[in-house]
């Protein structure tokens, strides 16, 4: 709470602080500064007080750290007007979104993932340039498909890509969307994909109640893509319980590739290992 408040005050005074939480679980101690001070001051001051700050750090479940250190804050901070919230998946996402967040005049929450810090991704020459950024509010289609749309963010994007590879062997073509940005969310990209595939599965590591997937489903139901759905949208989420400590229970509480595969089969009415829809 102390250094978050200090950073918010520094931003109000004209600096551009980057406030790092060792884990976003600790941001619960500073949430009053993040929301009541950083997110609301520009609106409450009629635009006279700007708070150009970045809050960054690992988000979501790590491994073996139990309930108090295993939460996804995408829905928490995505709920709050005044904040921008991004959630990178690849190295390109991390570089481009962090640079965009630093250059943005608004408070931005950058939700990284601790379990992905050691992973390597191919990076283009363009992404290594000084001027490269990833626009906040724009999703990326990681894999094109025609039968079903998988929408995810952060680590579970990789799970969706693995599931899509497995399902391709069964003749199912999955389109995988990497949200990149939670708030604002790229509803247009999701809608266009659904109009092509006619099916939707959302995937996230957080809890199901009032989550990112729930918001996507609500926006689709209220928007023009709803009439294009040939089946109800399905959510794949973490279990609605505090994170267990035991590894076998922890694995069961988090979405896995098999859960995505089963949800796709359910949505497309594919029986077990059959290769054709019925």
Beta-strand content:
5-15%
Given as residue ranges, the uncertain stretches (5+ residues, pLDDT < 50) are: none
Distance N terminus to C terminus?
55 Å
Shape: globular
Note the total helix count.
10
Main sheet summary: 5 strands, mixed
Strand order within the widest beta sheet: 1-2-4-3-8
What does the average pLDDT come to? 96
Percent helix range: 25-40%
Query: What structural category characterises the helix and strand content?
Result: alpha/beta
User: How many E strands?
Assistant: 10
Provide keyphrases for this structure.
single chain, about 280 residues, alpha/beta, 5-stranded mixed beta sheet, 10 helices, globular, Transketo_C/PFOR_II
Q: Please, could you describe this protein's structure?
A:
The chain is α/β, with parallel strands linked by helices. Helix content is about 35%, strand content about 15%. It contains 10 helices and 10 strands. It has helices at about 1-10, 30-40, 40-45, 75-80, 90-105, 155-170, 185-195, 210-220, 245-255, 255-265, and strands at about 20, 55-60, 85, 110, 140-145, 150, 175-180, 180-185, 200-205, 235. The strands form 2 sheets. A 5-stranded mixed sheet has the order 1-2-4-3-8. The chain has a 5-stranded mixed sheet with strand order 5-7-6-9-10, sandwiched between helices. Helix 6 (about 155-170) packs across helix 10 (about 255-265). The protein starts with a helix and ends in an 11-residue tail after the last helix. About 45% of the residues are buried.
């Amino acid at each position: 709470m102390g250094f978050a408040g200090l950073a918010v005050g520094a931003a109000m005074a004209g600096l551009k602080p980057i406030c790092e939480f060792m884990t976003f679980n600790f941001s619960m101690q500073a949430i009053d500064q993040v929301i009541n001070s950083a997110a609301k001051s520009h609106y409450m001051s009629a635009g006279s007080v700007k708070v150009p700050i970045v809050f960054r750090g690992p988000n979501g479940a790590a491994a073996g750290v139990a309930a108090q250190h295993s939460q996804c804050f995408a829905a928490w901070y995505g709920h709050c007007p005044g904040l921008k919230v991004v959630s990178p998946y690849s190295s390109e996402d991390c570089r481009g979104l962090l640079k965009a967040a630093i250059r943005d005049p608004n408070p931005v929450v950058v939700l990284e993932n601790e379990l992905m810090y050691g992973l390597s991704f191919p990076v283009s020459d363009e992404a290594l340039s000084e001027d490269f950024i990833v626009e906040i509010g724009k999703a990326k289609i990681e894999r094109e498909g025609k039968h079903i749309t998988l929408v995810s963010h952060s680590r579970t994007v990789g799970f969706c890509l693995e599931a899509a590879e497995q399902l391709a062997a069964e003749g199912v073509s999955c389109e995988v969307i990497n949200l990149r940005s939670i708030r604002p969310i790229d509803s247009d990209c999701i809608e266009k994909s659904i109009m092509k595939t006619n099916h939707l599965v959302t995937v996230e590591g957080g809890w199901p109640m009032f989550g990112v997937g729930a918001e996507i489903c609500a926006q689709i139901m209220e928007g023009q893509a709803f009439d294009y759905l040939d089946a109800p949208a399905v959510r794949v989420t973490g279990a609605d319980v505090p994170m267990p400590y035991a590894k076998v229970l922890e694995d069961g509480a988090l979405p896995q590739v098999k859960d995505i595969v089963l949800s796709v089969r359910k949505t497309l009415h594919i029986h077990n290992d059959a290769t054709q829809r019925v």
